[in-house]
Amino acid sequence: MYVVDRRQFLGLTLSAAAFSAATNLLPFDDRYAQGKVLGADGIPLSPQIEGPETMFLTWPGDPTSTICIQWIDEDHGREITLAYSPLEIDDWQVAKVVTKPFPMTNDKVYRASISSLKPGTEYRFRLGADSPTFRFRTMPSKITDTFHFVTGGDAGTGSHAIGTNQLAARQEPYFALIAGDLAYDNGKSPKTFVKYLKNYRAHMVDPQGRLIPMLACPGNHEVDGAYRQPREKAGSYLSVFDCFYRDTTYGVFDIGDEFSLVLLDTDHISTIEGEQTSWLEKTLAERQSKQHLFVANHVPAYPSYRSSNIGSDKPGTGSAQRKLWCPLFERYNVDVVLEHHDHLFKRTHPLTNGMKDQNGVPYLGDGSWGMLRPLKEPELRPYLAKVSSSYHMTAHHLEGDERYHIALEENGRIADVCMTKNKRAAKRG
Ligand SMILES: [Fe+2]
After folding, report:
1. Domain limits, the chain
2. Can you tell me the distance from the alpha carbon of 142 to that of 184, in angstroms, rounded to the nearest whole number?
């Protein structure tokens, strides 16, 4: 892993196209000096929303050919049709909108699952005859030099979450991954979950007007009881994300030919040990030819705030992952692990068995999309390369065998830039 400062990053010998994409990606201070967009009262501005206020997109399967369009609303008791077409030509198809209960309320989840879309294509859709037109794009089957996405965790519904949403949307990402603790509904406040979706709908629209698909994995605040609970205890979260998490609460997105994103459950519904760990090993082993292999989960193996108790007999935060998952990340040369939950910004050194190792695995994140804590004893955490108390999300820019990971603070400043390269290719070569 290479660490570069902002000046170095801008001077890197990227290809002209990649450099152009990278400069679009970066929120230069003069463009975003004000950080989030505030109203006169100091509260982040929300644009006028057309259509369902909670509508969002996610992927039920292959991101190059499927999309799931969902929203939560009262039961209108009538059929709704959704029509969609490629943006460039009029080739309208009709998709069925199905409904199911939104737990603990009288409302319904409305869902249209569409498949057989074309990769790397812009689409538009409408809900009924009088509807405005909405836009989205499918993932390309080949990674291009403009491919990028944003990740983070621990959002909530406050003004900082909105500010980070605004910053994230300006990066024009293909998708956003919120890896646990989305709304803080704790599995028992559907109202809070609805508020989270309203914020996402209001702000996670890119500068071209496209809705940005949201991916997620579970955190403790999705679940009533936080750990080792049945699926019913994560009613709001799973009512919309069960289009992907049909049976388990972990899974993998194979995004085109070169990129796999493994999403894990850190003991909230699926236990770490047992089936999930067996599945993880098989999943990583089968993806050794990928150019980009990412893993994301909620609770960190290498926490920046909580106590890991590494080297003591007392289990600390992340001990189960360090025992069962980190050896797999190392054996199968995972490029980057994204982890959260501690409400700071952090980047670890590349690690093998908890020790700094240039061939090890870097752990990025720590969950401060909308939540923050003060620093706590960073000097006692030798695995950390960088840590700060700042709201942030990370933009990942993929180019060939290389990746740039750019952590952006809520006000648009660059907290950190690092580069990772494909270690599996090096090992094969
Ligand atoms: Fe958490």
Report:
1. 2-38+148-173+246-428
2. 36
DSSP state of 18: H
Enumerate residues with CB within 5 Å of ligand 1 (an ion).
Answer: 181, 219-220, 341
Centroid of ligand 1 to alpha carbon of 300 (angstroms): 9
Q: What is the DSSP letter of 262?
A: E
238: CA distance to ligand 1 center in Å?
A: 17
The predicted pLDDT at position 2 comes to 61
- CA of 297: how far to CAs of 124, 153, 226, 267, 290, in Å? 32, 9, 14, 10, 20
Tell me, in angstroms, the distance from the centre of ligand 1 to residue 302's CA. Answer: 14
For residue 42, CA distances in Å to 33, 120, 346 come to: 15, 39, 28
Residues 250 and 300: beta-carbon distance below 8 Å: no
Specify the residue for token string 């995004």. Answer: 255
Dist. CA 345 → ligand 1 center (Å): 14
Evaluate if residue 278 carries a pLDDT over 50. yes
Query: Tell me: the pLDDT tens digits for 17-54?
Result: 333 334 333 333 333 334 455 555 556 566 667 889 99
Nearest to 62 by CA among 146, 119, 135: 119
> How far apart (Å, rounded) are the C-alpha atoms in residues 337 and 358?
15
**Which DSSP string corresponds to 133-175?**
PEEEEPPPSS--TT-EEEEE----SSHHHHHHHHHHHHT--S-
CATH homologous superfamily of 2-38+148-173+246-428 equals: Metallo-dependent phosphatases (3.60.21.10)
Sign of CA dihedral 41, 42, 48, 54: negative
pTM of the model: 0.91
